[in-house]
Design goal:
By secondary structure, the protein is α+β, with helices and mostly antiparallel strands. 67% of the residues lie in helices and 8% in strands. It has a 4-stranded antiparallel β-sheet, with no helix packed on it.
């Protein structure tokens, strides 16, 4: 029996349709290249790469690498971006073809007509929709970059607060030892009639106050360690990470005059909003193209007829509702204006935030210079003079304790100042300027200093 020609033709058509691939856009190809570049470093084969081993001597760069590769927030942002890259392919592709079947039955089947139907959106519509999704995908990339920078900032903040807490404890313990010494001096002076029992009690009161402060600081270590653990992306049931053995300060400080320009070039929040503006502009093109008709083509074959009869069909949408079309264009333009306004607002907010943080940076440095070069050395000298004066009977114990308390305050202020200086620097460089840590799993910067894409 000879094969029926229509069945072979239909089978070939079905196989051809099953193996079809659409034509990718330039933006889609660039987005996939960018995604692969980041994925090779961040999630090769959708797997978490080997993490650095954490020890008390781990460098800050190792801690940052661990945090960025292990952070659930960064991982979620990465896969959000990956999903939008795949959506570009969906939006630029033709709708799925439809398999048709029709029959005429008069007691028996008199006509049997299988066929295929394909919808073709109007010229340029698929590309315009792909352009919208491409811009949205770029916005998702910059959201991923923001998550990387935010996680790095969280790690640095927790790291410096934990490290400098150790220094504050050391200062209080040194002060406690000093107060024990001063109590012994007060007892000795009281024994020879040069001091009073009140001096001993004052020393004990101050010693008890500092002892309580030590207990409070030791208790503070728990939430600080929890924040440090969380910044490393470790869950509650995982072992606590080793605490850093020493604090690692910034090797160099940025040029504040140029940092604001860098922020406007690199800040991922601005870049994400610029991508929103591009997406809104692309949506205007989509709205205008809604005026173009869509087309449907179909081919059916009556296999009961001899010879086989073919029934080509064609249809076209009629975009006649002018008020709807005008409203779509108006909506797209309103979205574009809103996106532009949000971008301008973020630029203003970034300028204000930079001014506030840079002022705080300068103020901290001035106060630290005063503490380190003037107040702490003079406080130590004042304490030594007060101790000698008390031993000689020229000043009372109250003045001695006041000198000790003043020096303690200066030293604590200096540690707090160094903590805030490092955190403020991290906020300026990471969150405001958008300068990523070395080795961060991000796209390289473009020649003009802007991050790709």
């Amino acid at each position: 029996m000879k094969p029926v020609p229509w069945s072979a033709g239909l089978l070939v058509a079905l196989l051809a349709v099953a193996g079809c691939k659409g034509v990718s856009t330039e933006g889609e190809r660039a987005s996939r290249r960018d995604l692969k570049t980041v994925a090779d470093a961040y999630r090769p084969d959708n797997r978490k790469p080997e993490l650095p081993v954490l020890t008390p001597d781990s460098t800050l760069s190792n801690l940052l690498a661990y945090a960025l590769l292990n952070s659930p927030k960064v991982e979620a942002a990465f896969y959000d971006w990956s999903a939008t890259v795949d959506r570009i392919t969906v939006d630029r592709s033709l709708p799925d073809p439809q398999l048709l079947f029709q029959a005429y039955i008069q007691k028996v089947v008199t006509s049997l007509m299988p066929g295929l139907q394909q919808q073709f959106p109007g010229p340029g519509k698929l590309k315009a929709r792909a352009n919208v999704t491409t811009a949205e995908s770029q916005g998702k990339y910059f959201a991923f970059e923001s998550a990387v920078l935010e996680s790095a900032l969280d790690l640095k903040r927790a790291y410096y607060e934990l490290c400098f807490l150790t220094e504050r404890l050391e200062i209080d313990r040194e002060t406690l030892a000093l107060l024990n010494d001063l109590e012994q001096i007060a007892r000795a002076q009281n024994a020879v009639g040069k001091g009073t029992l009140q001096d001993v009690l004052r020393a004990q009161i101050e010693r008890d106050r500092v002892g309580t402060e030590i207990a409070d600081l030791e208790d503070t270590r728990r939430p600080k360690l929890a924040a440090y653990k969380g910044a490393l992306g470790l869950t509650r049931d995982q072992p606590d990470p080793p605490t850093p053995a020493r604090v690692e300060l910034a090797a160099a400080y940025p040029d504040m005059e140029k940092l604001l320009d860098t922020a406007f070039e690199r800040n991922p929040r601005l870049k994400a909003m610029e991508a929103d503006v591009r997406a809104a502009e692309a949506s205007i093109a989509v709205a205008y193209k809604e005026r173009i008709p869509d087309f449907n083509l179909a081919l059916m074959a009556d296999v009961k007829a001899s010879p086989v009869l073919y029934w080509p069909q064609a249809s076209m949408s009629l975009p006649i509702w002018r008020d709807k079309l005008a409203a779509e264009v108006s909506e797209a333009k309103a979205n574009q204006l809103a996106a532009q306004a949000r971008l301008t607002g973020e630029q203003i907010a970034l300028t204000v935030e930079f001014a506030e943080k840079s002022f705080a940076w300068r103020e901290i440095n001035r106060n630290l210079a005063l503490l380190q070069n003037q107040l702490i050395p003079k406080g130590r000298q004042s304490l030594e003079i007060a101790r000698a004066g008390y031993l000689s009977g020229s000043i009372d114990f109250f003045n001695l304790m006041d000198a000790q308390r003043t020096l303690l305050g200066f030293r604590m202020d200096e540690v707090e100042g160094r903590t805030q200086r490092e955190i403020t620097l991290a906020e300026l460089s990471l969150w405001i300027a958008g300068i990523p840590p070395v080795g961060a799993p991000l796209l390289p910067a473009a020649p003009n200093g802007k991050s790709a894409p």
